[in-house]
Each structure stands twice: as C-alpha cells, then as structure tokens.
Amino acid sequence: MGMSEELTAQFRQANPSLPKKAGLPANKKQILHGLSGFAKPGQLMAVMGASGSGKTSLLNVLGQRLGLSPGSTMTGEVRCNNRKLSKNDFGAFGGFVQ
Ligand SMILES: Nc1ncnc2c1ncn2[C@@H]1O[C@H](COP(=O)(O)OP(=O)(O)OP(=O)(O)O)[C@@H](O)[C@H]1O
Ligand SMILES: [Mg+2]
After folding, report:
1. Which end of the chain is more exposed for a tag (fewer CB within 10 A), N or C?
2. Ligand 1 pocket test, candidate residues 35, 55, 68, most atoms within 8 A of CB
3. Is the dihedral of CA 43, 96, 20, 17 positive or negative?
4. C-alpha 18, offset from chain centre
C-alpha cells in the first residue's frame, strides 16, 4: 500500500466480517477483532504475523477492497489525515500492489 508523504493513515476498531465459505452456515465469520493503529508519512511499515492471522484481510480493509468479497462488511473506521474515508476514497491517494 503506497502513501504519499503528507498522509497519516489511521484505523480504529477495524472489524471485517466475511461470509463463510459455501457449505457452511450462512452466518458470518469475524476475521479481525478490534484492531487499531496508524501509519506515519515517510516511514515503511511491515505487517507481520503467522499464516491466517489476518494480514491480507487488514490490508483489504485499509485499501477499501472488501467489495471484492461479496457480502463482506466492516464496522469501525479508516481515517486519513484524521478525515474518515468515504466509499472508494482510497483510490484517490493510494495504491494496492499484490
Ligand atoms: N473469503 C473468506 N471467507 C472466509 N474466511 C476467510 C476469507 N478470507 C480469509 N478468511 C479467513 O480469515 C483468516 C485470515 O486470513 P488472511 O488471508 O487475512 O490471513 P493472512 O495473514 O494474510 O495469511 P497468509 O500469511 O497465509 O497470507 C483466516 O482464518 C482465513 O481462513
Ligand atoms: Mg495473506
């Protein structure tokens, strides 16, 4: 995820829920539980954790990519320079490379 030098990104209580895979009950599975943090401008940040710990899910939340998993939802908020991101704001200043 790229950030220009002037931007500070924050996330609070980011709680994405994804639909369970086919064949499982229709209720949702909460993937991340109450994560908060921030990324400062001009610094490289690494997100580390065991496989399945939620790194990709967190980056999908920060990059407003939850729509790629139909039926997924998130509570909490993502802010940039203290302004709450609206739908699809991320693309105006950020990039996601996989
Ligand atoms: N679309 C989905 N439906 C149901 N569960 C999912 C879905 N995507 C991810 N999960 C679950 O969410 C948890 C976190 O997955 P995630 O892919 O974010 O982990 P990760 O840290 O990126 O793992 P890895 O290091 O293997 O890439 C795992 O238990 C995974 O099975
Ligand atoms: Mg991953």
Report:
1. C
2. 55
3. positive
4. 13
Kindly tell me the burial class for residue 7, based on how many C-beta atoms sit within 10 Å of its own C-beta (0-12, 13-18, 19 or more).
middle
Q: Pocket of ligand 1, candidates 31, 32, 96: which has the most ligand atoms within 8 Å of its Cβ, to mutate?
A: 31
- Asked whether the predicted pLDDT for residue 24 surpasses 60, the reply is no
Residues 51-65 have pLDDT tens digits of: 988 898 888 888 888
Question: Measured at the alpha carbon of residue 28, what is the angle toward residues 97 and 49, in degrees to the nearest 5?
Answer: 45
61 lines ligand 1 (CB under 6 A): no
